[in-house]
Design a protein that fits this description.
The complex is a heterodimer of chains A (about 325) and B (about 325). Chain A has twelve helices and no strands. Chain A has helices at about 1-30, 45-55, 65-80, 95-130, 135-145, 150-165, 185-220, 225-230, 235-250, 250-275, 280-290, 290-320. The longest helix of chain A has about 35 residues, at about 95-130. The chains are: A mainly alpha (about 325), B mainly alpha (about 325).
Chain lengths: ~325, ~325
């Protein structure tokens, strides 16, 4: 187990290293320099050189570094936890990320929890009552959930709750493009601002979780030991929710780890649409501004998170299922 | 039993069920066919000829009512996306400054209304459908070519290619795919439709690659492959003639579902301004352009592309599941 862990961590670091090399090269060969005011005679050449030097693109004399040189510098800084400077904001990428990260964790964590809390029971009930109305409804919902990208759902939700219902007597009046300003001091206001983005992010995962849970549960329910348990005279509830569920729910652990990059993917646009001040919105804005150091920073952050969560998932799996040996 | 109607093939065609693949026959499949009621038994009655695996799959698919319905709807969408823009020509970019924001369902001239520049919304939607479907289909062809070939070789030969494939997949999976595509698109310079297709194909093929690899890993150990090898078949022949036909079923399903995934991805890219640039319409950039009108009475400009996207993706997913059921009747 210890050896396995060491090996996994080493592979993870190697992956991150490869990815940083790939993305670094990509962002550096992209046409368009971060400072294209070189022709402006009113800006002193020394100022431009200084600025480009700070971005790690040229040395003190203004001679451009080659891409491998730049990458070595970037890696050196990365080891010290420095992801470079934003082209646009005159701010360190790490500072920007750390400002936004708590907001994103709050939103994505809530979406994941909601998806688990709804998706898993839905899948279980659909499997134990196969072909019932609940089962059919669940499949329909999951089909729609898989077929609708979170940003389109977000737009629909804004339209329904923000525009149409606002003019109706129901008047839920969810905030439209409105920023949450109260911080965590005002939980009710926070919750109010979270409902729509969380819903639009959670639907896809609800669809995936419920579908997967249903299939996994059905597979277990058809196994011999379940029939044995029933034949011994145990109640249906006990067999379903104790014997079958324990085995059926295990693969969900892996699914949660897989879900994380998916939710982040959805969050990039969803946070932009709902003006949620998270890393997704940061990436959204960076993409619009072509602010590559920030994009690179977000990619590295998400990749590190994914590698970490995959590792945690595998370890949890090994602990939860004694049949698995590493 | 035994009465089998001639099989119509839908307008869009069922991938994998096209007649020229009926020639795929191995002993294993013939045995499987024999096990199907209503299939090969027809010969005893001197009736219809023996049915192949793919023909049976088409019949099973057509018995799946929801999937057939979805196929018909998708067929209508695809057909009108191909035909209507040819008839209407430049209508999608003819601006009419006297009638901007014409509400939908008011006149036959502009059935779905007009946008901010007085351009016909329906013509733009159909033009956008072309973009979506073209990107979806071409990128999936790219998936199949790259992922199929590499996956097959990695599964059959193993070794360094196998390792490289798995590591590439690990990298792509752990990065947010949208940002990957955006970074590569930006690096390859300029946002053109061809770039978008190539980038999506070059980064997204890993799923089919892995699936193909898994299939080849299992099938290369099977007895019929050993038999072929004993008879002196070359590696190339074994891969193409013996293993590939047996590995196809899950690949076809994955490719179908891949099309809807790509269409949604392209819309997301369009929404971020990284797909085909205006004035050329795509569902993604229509959503982006008109998101600001959501508050006003012009919300229909957002609702139409969003709904078109939803319906298309839903239909493709339903068809994909129909094909899955048709190709693997044991799974139920």
């Amino acid at each position: 187990m210890t050896f396995y862990l060491i090996r996994r961590v080493a592979i993870g670091i190697f992956l991150l290293f490869l990815m940083s090399a790939m993305f670094f090269t990509l962002t550096r060969v992209t046409p368009g320099a971060p400072i294209s005011v070189g022709e402006n005679p009113r800006i002193h050449q020394a100022t431009i050189t200084l600025r480009l030097h700070r971005l790690g693109l040229v040395d003190e004399q203004g001679n451009p570094y080659s891409i491998p040189q730049q990458y070595v510098q970037y890696l050196g800084a990365l080891i010290h936890g420095d992801l470079g400077d934003s082209y646009i904001n005159n701010e360190r990428v790490t500072t920007l990320l750390m400002q936004r990260l708590p907001n994103s964790i709050l939103l994505l964590g809530a979406a994941l929890l909601v998806a688990l809390a709804i998706g898993i029971p839905l899948g279980i009930f659909a499997a134990t009552r196969q072909y019932s109305k609940l089962d059919v409804t669940t499949s329909i919902v999951s089909y729609v959930g898989v077929s609708i990208p979170s940003f389109v759902l977000g737009i629909y939700l804004l339209l329904i709750f923000g525009v149409i219902l606002k003019q109706s007597p129901l008047h839920w009046g969810f905030p439209l493009f409105g920023m949450h300003t109260g911080g965590v001091d005002d939980p009710l206001d926070l919750l109010y601002h979270m409902v729509l983005p969380v819903t639009s992010l959670a639907i896809l995962q609800i669809a995936i979780f419920s579908r997967f849970m249903r299939a996994s549960m059905l597979e277990v329910l058809h196994q011999d030991y379940i029939r044995t348990a029933r034949a011994k005279g145990l109640s249906l509830e006990k067999v379903n929710y104790k014997h079958a569920l324990r085995n059926a729910i295990l693969p969900i652990i892996t699914l949660v780890a897989i879900a994380i990059p998916q939710i982040v993917n959805g969050a990039i646009i969803t946070e932009g649409i709902f003006s949620w001040p998270g890393t997704g919105q940061l990436a959204f804005q960076a993409v619009v501004d072509r602010d590559y150091p920030v994009i690179l920073g977000v990619v590295m952050l998400v990749a590190a998170g994914t590698v970490l969560f995959n590792l945690i998932a595998d370890v949890t799996y090994a602990i939860a299922d004694p049949r698995i040996r590493y | 039993m035994a009465q089998v109607p001639p099989i119509p093939i839908g307008p869009a065609g069922v991938p994998g069920a096209v007649p020229d693949q009926l020639s795929v026959e191995t002993t294993v499949q013939q045995e499987r066919d024999l096990a199907q009621p209503g299939g090969a038994k027809a010969d005893e009655f001197g009736g219809a000829p023996e049915l192949g695996f793919w023909r049976l799959a088409v019949i099973r698919f057509l018995h799946h009512r929801v999937a057939t319905g979805a196929l018909i709807i998708l067929g209508i969408i695809v057909l009108s996306a191909i035909v209507v823009p040819i008839i209407t020509g430049d209508l999608y970019r003819i601006q009419d400054y006297r009638h901007p924001f014409k509400p939908p369902f008011q006149s036959f001239q502009h059935l779905l209304g007009t946008d901010d520049l007085g351009r016909d919304e329906l013509a733009r939607l159909l033009r956008g459908a072309r973009v979506s479907i073209m990107v979806g289909v071409l990128a999936v062809v790219g998936y199949l070519l790259i992922g199929g070939t590499l996956g097959a070789l990695a599964g059959y030969y193993g070794g360094w290619l196998d390792n490289a494939l798995m590591r590439f997949t690990d990298i792509i999976i752990s990065a947010p795919f949208l940002l990957v595509v955006i970074a590569v698109t930006a690096a390859t310079g300029g946002v053109r439709l061809s770039t978008v297709i190539i980038v999506i194909a070059a980064t997204g093929w890993y799923e089919i690659g892995r699936l193909m690899r898994a299939q080849f890993l299992v099938l290369r150990e099977q007895e019929f492959v050993q038999a072929a090898r004993a008879l002196g078949a070359s590696n190339a022949r074994i891969i193409v003639r013996h293993i590939l036909p047996n590995a196809l079923a899950p690949i076809i399903v994955s490719a179908t579902l891949g099309v809807s995934g790509i269409i949604l991805l392209e819309a997301a890219l369009g929404f971020l301004g990284y797909s085909i640039p205006p004035p050329e319409p795509s569902w993604g950039n229509m959503l982006q352009q008109f998101e600001q009108y959501l508050l006003d009475d012009q919300a229909y400009l957002v609702v139409f592309p969003a709904t078109a996207l939803l319906i298309t993706a839903l239909c493709i997913n339903l068809i994909g599941d129909g094909i899955r059921d048709a190709l693997d009747p044991r799974q139920r």
